[in-house]
UniProtKB/TrEMBL annotation:
Family membership noted in the UniProt record: Belongs to the alpha-carbonic anhydrase family.
Domain Alpha-carbonic anhydrase: 63-324
CC per GO annotation: cytoplasm
Catalytic activity annotation: hydrogencarbonate + H(+) = CO2 + H2O
Gene3D superfamilies: Alpha carbonic anhydrase (3.10.200.10)
Assigned keywords, A-Z: Lyase, Metal-binding, Zinc
Domain of life assignment: Eukaryota
Protein name: Carbonic anhydrase
Keyword Lyase tagged: yes
PROSITE patterns named in the record: ALPHA_CA_1, ALPHA_CA_2
Species annotation: Drosophila guanche (Fruit fly)
Length: 327
Protein backbone atom coordinates (compact mmCIF):
# COMPACT_ATOMS: atom_id res chain seq x y z
CA UNK A 1 0.00 0.00 0.00
CA UNK A 2 2.82 2.38 0.92
CA UNK A 3 4.57 1.59 -2.33
CA UNK A 4 1.42 2.36 -4.29
CA UNK A 5 1.00 5.67 -2.47
CA UNK A 6 4.61 6.59 -3.19
CA UNK A 7 4.10 5.79 -6.86
CA UNK A 8 0.94 7.92 -7.01
CA UNK A 9 2.76 10.80 -5.33
CA UNK A 10 5.65 10.60 -7.78
CA UNK A 11 3.32 10.47 -10.80
CA UNK A 12 1.60 13.59 -9.49
CA UNK A 13 4.96 15.31 -9.02
CA UNK A 14 6.02 14.35 -12.55
CA UNK A 15 2.79 15.75 -14.02
CA UNK A 16 3.04 19.05 -12.16
CA UNK A 17 6.75 19.26 -12.93
CA UNK A 18 6.09 18.75 -16.61
CA UNK A 19 3.45 21.51 -16.58
CA UNK A 20 5.81 23.86 -14.74
CA UNK A 21 8.61 23.15 -17.23
CA UNK A 22 6.33 23.78 -20.19
CA UNK A 23 5.09 27.08 -18.71
CA UNK A 24 8.63 28.33 -18.06
CA UNK A 25 9.80 27.51 -21.59
CA UNK A 26 6.75 29.18 -23.14
CA UNK A 27 7.27 32.31 -21.03
CA UNK A 28 10.92 32.48 -22.07
CA UNK A 29 9.99 32.24 -25.75
CA UNK A 30 7.33 34.96 -25.45
CA UNK A 31 9.40 37.38 -23.37
CA UNK A 32 12.42 36.87 -25.64
CA UNK A 33 10.35 38.43 -28.44
CA UNK A 34 9.09 41.24 -26.23
CA UNK A 35 12.52 42.31 -25.00
CA UNK A 36 13.70 42.91 -28.57
CA UNK A 37 11.15 45.74 -28.83
CA UNK A 38 10.76 46.70 -25.17
CA UNK A 39 14.13 46.83 -23.32
CA UNK A 40 12.29 47.14 -19.99
CA UNK A 41 11.49 43.41 -20.23
CA UNK A 42 15.19 42.47 -20.22
CA UNK A 43 15.41 42.14 -16.42
CA UNK A 44 12.34 39.87 -16.34
CA UNK A 45 13.84 37.82 -19.19
CA UNK A 46 17.06 37.29 -17.23
CA UNK A 47 15.05 36.10 -14.22
CA UNK A 48 13.24 33.57 -16.40
CA UNK A 49 16.56 32.31 -17.75
CA UNK A 50 17.62 31.65 -14.16
CA UNK A 51 14.70 29.19 -13.87
CA UNK A 52 15.56 27.26 -17.04
CA UNK A 53 18.00 24.80 -15.42
CA UNK A 54 15.28 23.83 -12.93
CA UNK A 55 12.72 23.42 -15.72
CA UNK A 56 15.12 21.31 -17.77
CA UNK A 57 15.89 18.96 -14.88
CA UNK A 58 12.33 18.69 -13.53
CA UNK A 59 11.40 15.55 -15.44
CA UNK A 60 10.88 11.85 -15.11
CA UNK A 61 14.18 10.81 -16.63
CA UNK A 62 16.26 11.16 -13.48
CA UNK A 63 14.19 8.78 -11.34
CA UNK A 64 12.47 6.21 -13.43
CA UNK A 65 15.13 4.21 -15.25
CA UNK A 66 18.48 2.57 -14.69
CA UNK A 67 21.09 0.74 -16.75
CA UNK A 68 20.60 -2.68 -15.14
CA UNK A 69 17.93 -3.74 -17.64
CA UNK A 70 17.64 -1.27 -20.54
CA UNK A 71 15.67 -3.88 -22.46
CA UNK A 72 12.82 -3.15 -20.02
CA UNK A 73 12.74 0.60 -20.68
CA UNK A 74 10.09 0.05 -23.34
CA UNK A 75 7.62 -1.16 -20.70
CA UNK A 76 7.42 2.33 -19.21
CA UNK A 77 8.58 4.28 -22.26
CA UNK A 78 7.13 2.79 -25.48
CA UNK A 79 9.44 4.80 -27.74
CA UNK A 80 12.38 2.80 -26.36
CA UNK A 81 11.01 -0.22 -28.21
CA UNK A 82 10.18 1.69 -31.36
CA UNK A 83 11.95 2.61 -34.58
CA UNK A 84 14.96 4.83 -35.29
CA UNK A 85 16.61 4.21 -31.94
CA UNK A 86 20.13 5.17 -30.87
CA UNK A 87 22.99 4.46 -30.43
CA UNK A 88 24.13 2.45 -33.44
CA UNK A 89 27.34 1.00 -34.85
CA UNK A 90 28.84 3.18 -37.58
CA UNK A 91 31.09 1.55 -40.19
CA UNK A 92 32.98 3.45 -42.88
CA UNK A 93 32.02 0.67 -45.29
CA UNK A 94 28.28 1.13 -44.75
CA UNK A 95 27.95 4.90 -44.90
CA UNK A 96 27.07 7.21 -47.76
CA UNK A 97 29.79 9.77 -48.56
CA UNK A 98 27.98 12.99 -49.28
CA UNK A 99 28.74 16.66 -49.63
CA UNK A 100 26.71 17.82 -46.65
CA UNK A 101 27.12 21.46 -45.62
CA UNK A 102 29.66 21.99 -42.85
CA UNK A 103 28.45 22.63 -39.34
CA UNK A 104 28.37 26.32 -38.48
CA UNK A 105 28.92 27.23 -34.84
CA UNK A 106 27.64 30.50 -33.40
CA UNK A 107 28.59 31.93 -30.00
CA UNK A 108 30.61 28.79 -29.26
CA UNK A 109 33.67 30.95 -28.55
CA UNK A 110 31.88 33.51 -26.37
CA UNK A 111 32.38 33.10 -22.59
CA UNK A 112 29.35 32.08 -20.59
CA UNK A 113 27.88 34.83 -18.42
CA UNK A 114 28.08 32.65 -15.31
CA UNK A 115 30.00 29.73 -13.88
CA UNK A 116 28.88 26.27 -14.93
CA UNK A 117 27.08 24.06 -12.42
CA UNK A 118 28.37 20.50 -12.85
CA UNK A 119 25.78 18.05 -11.49
CA UNK A 120 25.78 14.33 -10.67
CA UNK A 121 22.15 13.31 -11.28
CA UNK A 122 22.69 9.60 -10.57
CA UNK A 123 22.71 8.63 -14.26
CA UNK A 124 25.49 10.85 -15.58
CA UNK A 125 27.41 14.02 -14.90
CA UNK A 126 26.01 16.98 -16.82
CA UNK A 127 25.53 20.71 -16.90
CA UNK A 128 22.91 23.00 -18.34
CA UNK A 129 24.35 25.47 -20.83
CA UNK A 130 23.90 29.09 -19.72
CA UNK A 131 23.75 32.15 -21.94
CA UNK A 132 26.95 33.83 -23.07
CA UNK A 133 28.05 37.32 -22.06
CA UNK A 134 26.00 38.61 -25.01
CA UNK A 135 22.76 37.22 -23.61
CA UNK A 136 22.14 34.28 -25.96
CA UNK A 137 23.04 30.61 -25.89
CA UNK A 138 25.44 29.07 -28.42
CA UNK A 139 23.72 27.51 -31.41
CA UNK A 140 24.56 25.46 -34.48
CA UNK A 141 23.26 24.81 -37.99
CA UNK A 142 24.52 22.96 -41.08
CA UNK A 143 25.03 19.26 -41.68
CA UNK A 144 21.58 17.63 -41.63
CA UNK A 145 20.18 20.65 -39.80
CA UNK A 146 17.77 22.86 -41.73
CA UNK A 147 17.09 25.13 -38.75
CA UNK A 148 19.00 26.73 -35.89
CA UNK A 149 19.62 24.56 -32.84
CA UNK A 150 20.35 26.11 -29.45
CA UNK A 151 22.75 24.32 -27.09
CA UNK A 152 21.01 23.20 -23.90
CA UNK A 153 22.95 20.46 -22.10
CA UNK A 154 26.25 18.57 -22.00
CA UNK A 155 26.60 15.10 -20.49
CA UNK A 156 28.83 12.03 -20.67
CA UNK A 157 28.65 8.24 -21.03
CA UNK A 158 31.43 5.92 -19.83
CA UNK A 159 32.26 2.35 -18.91
CA UNK A 160 34.40 0.94 -16.10
CA UNK A 161 37.87 -0.37 -15.44
CA UNK A 162 36.84 -3.59 -17.19
CA UNK A 163 34.87 -2.17 -20.11
CA UNK A 164 34.79 0.77 -22.48
CA UNK A 165 31.77 3.00 -22.42
CA UNK A 166 31.07 5.01 -25.56
CA UNK A 167 27.53 4.61 -26.84
CA UNK A 168 28.28 4.70 -30.57
CA UNK A 169 30.77 2.32 -32.15
CA UNK A 170 33.07 3.56 -34.89
CA UNK A 171 34.33 0.93 -37.33
CA UNK A 172 33.67 -1.89 -34.91
CA UNK A 173 35.32 -0.22 -31.95
CA UNK A 174 33.82 1.01 -28.70
CA UNK A 175 35.77 3.88 -27.17
CA UNK A 176 36.34 4.86 -23.55
CA UNK A 177 34.04 7.86 -23.23
CA UNK A 178 31.40 9.76 -25.18
CA UNK A 179 30.31 13.37 -24.72
CA UNK A 180 26.94 14.64 -25.95
CA UNK A 181 26.17 18.30 -26.58
CA UNK A 182 22.38 18.44 -26.82
CA UNK A 183 20.72 21.15 -28.92
CA UNK A 184 17.08 22.20 -29.18
CA UNK A 185 15.45 23.39 -32.42
CA UNK A 186 14.61 27.04 -31.84
CA UNK A 187 11.33 26.80 -33.74
CA UNK A 188 9.86 24.69 -30.93
CA UNK A 189 8.86 26.39 -27.69
CA UNK A 190 9.47 23.67 -25.10
CA UNK A 191 11.58 20.55 -24.72
CA UNK A 192 8.39 18.50 -24.93
CA UNK A 193 7.50 20.09 -28.26
CA UNK A 194 10.99 19.35 -29.55
CA UNK A 195 10.89 15.71 -28.42
CA UNK A 196 7.59 15.22 -30.23
CA UNK A 197 9.00 16.25 -33.62
CA UNK A 198 11.51 14.35 -35.75
CA UNK A 199 13.66 17.46 -36.21
CA UNK A 200 13.33 18.69 -32.63
CA UNK A 201 16.81 17.90 -31.30
CA UNK A 202 20.39 17.75 -32.52
CA UNK A 203 23.19 16.04 -30.64
CA UNK A 204 26.89 16.47 -31.32
CA UNK A 205 28.76 13.37 -30.15
CA UNK A 206 32.48 13.35 -29.35
CA UNK A 207 34.30 10.11 -28.59
CA UNK A 208 37.42 9.81 -26.42
CA UNK A 209 40.28 7.33 -26.32
CA UNK A 210 42.43 6.96 -23.21
CA UNK A 211 46.09 7.82 -23.74
CA UNK A 212 48.88 6.68 -21.42
CA UNK A 213 51.76 8.65 -22.91
CA UNK A 214 51.44 11.69 -20.66
CA UNK A 215 49.75 12.94 -17.50
CA UNK A 216 47.36 15.34 -19.23
CA UNK A 217 46.61 17.21 -22.45
CA UNK A 218 46.14 20.88 -23.16
CA UNK A 219 42.37 20.91 -23.50
CA UNK A 220 41.40 23.83 -21.24
CA UNK A 221 37.63 23.41 -21.20
CA UNK A 222 37.70 19.64 -20.93
CA UNK A 223 40.39 19.74 -18.26
CA UNK A 224 38.15 21.96 -16.13
CA UNK A 225 35.26 19.50 -16.49
CA UNK A 226 37.42 16.49 -15.71
CA UNK A 227 38.89 18.20 -12.63
CA UNK A 228 35.36 18.97 -11.42
CA UNK A 229 34.51 15.27 -11.24
CA UNK A 230 36.41 14.98 -7.97
CA UNK A 231 33.87 17.35 -6.42
CA UNK A 232 30.66 15.62 -7.57
CA UNK A 233 31.27 12.05 -6.47
CA UNK A 234 28.07 11.87 -4.43
CA UNK A 235 24.63 11.65 -5.96
CA UNK A 236 22.94 15.04 -6.47
CA UNK A 237 26.13 16.96 -5.72
CA UNK A 238 27.10 20.03 -7.74
CA UNK A 239 30.26 22.00 -8.30
CA UNK A 240 31.07 25.23 -10.14
CA UNK A 241 34.52 25.34 -11.79
CA UNK A 242 35.99 28.76 -10.84
CA UNK A 243 36.49 29.99 -14.40
CA UNK A 244 34.22 31.34 -17.12
CA UNK A 245 34.31 28.87 -19.99
CA UNK A 246 33.19 28.70 -23.61
CA UNK A 247 31.30 25.83 -25.17
CA UNK A 248 33.84 25.72 -27.99
CA UNK A 249 36.60 24.89 -25.52
CA UNK A 250 35.00 21.46 -25.02
CA UNK A 251 35.69 20.63 -28.66
CA UNK A 252 39.42 21.30 -28.22
CA UNK A 253 41.15 21.04 -31.62
CA UNK A 254 38.59 18.58 -32.98
CA UNK A 255 38.16 18.46 -36.76
CA UNK A 256 34.49 19.47 -36.86
CA UNK A 257 34.42 19.21 -40.67
CA UNK A 258 34.49 15.40 -40.59
CA UNK A 259 31.40 13.72 -39.13
CA UNK A 260 28.74 11.03 -39.53
CA UNK A 261 25.05 11.97 -39.50
CA UNK A 262 21.85 9.99 -39.16
CA UNK A 263 18.31 10.24 -37.79
CA UNK A 264 17.92 8.65 -34.38
CA UNK A 265 16.69 9.03 -30.84
CA UNK A 266 17.61 10.01 -27.33
CA UNK A 267 19.70 7.23 -25.78
CA UNK A 268 17.88 7.49 -22.46
CA UNK A 269 14.16 7.41 -21.70
CA UNK A 270 11.84 8.57 -23.11
CA UNK A 271 13.97 7.55 -26.17
CA UNK A 272 12.16 10.07 -28.37
CA UNK A 273 13.00 9.54 -32.10
CA UNK A 274 13.63 13.25 -32.51
CA UNK A 275 17.42 13.52 -32.79
CA UNK A 276 19.57 14.45 -35.76
CA UNK A 277 22.88 12.92 -34.74
CA UNK A 278 26.28 14.28 -35.75
CA UNK A 279 29.05 11.96 -34.57
CA UNK A 280 32.53 13.32 -35.16
CA UNK A 281 34.94 10.98 -36.92
CA UNK A 282 37.99 12.22 -35.03
CA UNK A 283 38.50 10.76 -31.55
CA UNK A 284 39.89 13.03 -28.83
CA UNK A 285 42.40 11.89 -26.20
CA UNK A 286 41.69 11.65 -22.50
CA UNK A 287 44.46 11.12 -19.99
CA UNK A 288 44.74 7.82 -18.14
CA UNK A 289 44.61 9.98 -15.01
CA UNK A 290 41.33 11.67 -15.97
CA UNK A 291 39.23 8.72 -17.15
CA UNK A 292 39.09 7.00 -13.71
CA UNK A 293 37.53 10.16 -12.27
CA UNK A 294 34.29 9.11 -13.96
CA UNK A 295 34.45 5.70 -12.30
CA UNK A 296 34.45 7.18 -8.78
CA UNK A 297 31.04 8.82 -9.25
CA UNK A 298 28.16 7.24 -7.32
CA UNK A 299 24.49 6.79 -8.13
CA UNK A 300 21.45 7.49 -5.95
CA UNK A 301 22.01 4.23 -4.08
CA UNK A 302 25.60 5.12 -3.19
CA UNK A 303 26.98 2.52 -5.58
CA UNK A 304 29.56 3.20 -8.33
CA UNK A 305 28.03 4.86 -11.38
CA UNK A 306 29.48 2.67 -14.12
CA UNK A 307 28.61 1.52 -17.65
CA UNK A 308 25.97 4.19 -18.22
CA UNK A 309 25.67 3.49 -21.94
CA UNK A 310 22.73 2.04 -23.81
CA UNK A 311 23.23 -1.18 -25.82
CA UNK A 312 23.48 -0.83 -29.58
CA UNK A 313 20.22 -0.51 -31.49
CA UNK A 314 19.34 -1.78 -34.95
CA UNK A 315 20.24 0.47 -37.86
CA UNK A 316 17.18 -0.86 -39.69
CA UNK A 317 16.94 0.77 -43.12
CA UNK A 318 18.34 4.10 -42.00
CA UNK A 319 20.97 5.86 -44.04
CA UNK A 320 24.16 7.06 -42.36
CA UNK A 321 25.89 9.93 -44.10
CA UNK A 322 29.58 10.74 -43.93
CA UNK A 323 30.70 14.29 -44.50
CA UNK A 324 34.40 14.55 -45.33
CA UNK A 325 36.23 17.88 -45.60
CA UNK A 326 37.45 17.07 -49.10
CA UNK A 327 34.06 16.23 -50.62
Amino acid sequence: MAQSAEKRAWISLEWHGSCLSSCIFRCVAIVRGWKMHFPAFNDFYQRLLFLLPFATNFGIQERSFDYNAPIEWKDAFPNCGGAEQSPIAISRYKVIPIGLPPLHFYRYDEPFDQLLSIHNNGHTVHFTIPTTIFGERPYVTGGLLQDFYEARDVHFHWGSQQSKGSEHLLNGRRYDLEMHIVHHNTKYISDEDARNNSDGLAVLAVLFKVERTGPTFYQPGLNEIFASLLHVGDFNSTYAPPVLMTLGSLLSNLDVRNFYSYKGSLTTPPCSPSVLWHVFAEVLPISHQDLPKFWQLRNRHGRPLLNNFRPLQSQESRQIFHRRPWL
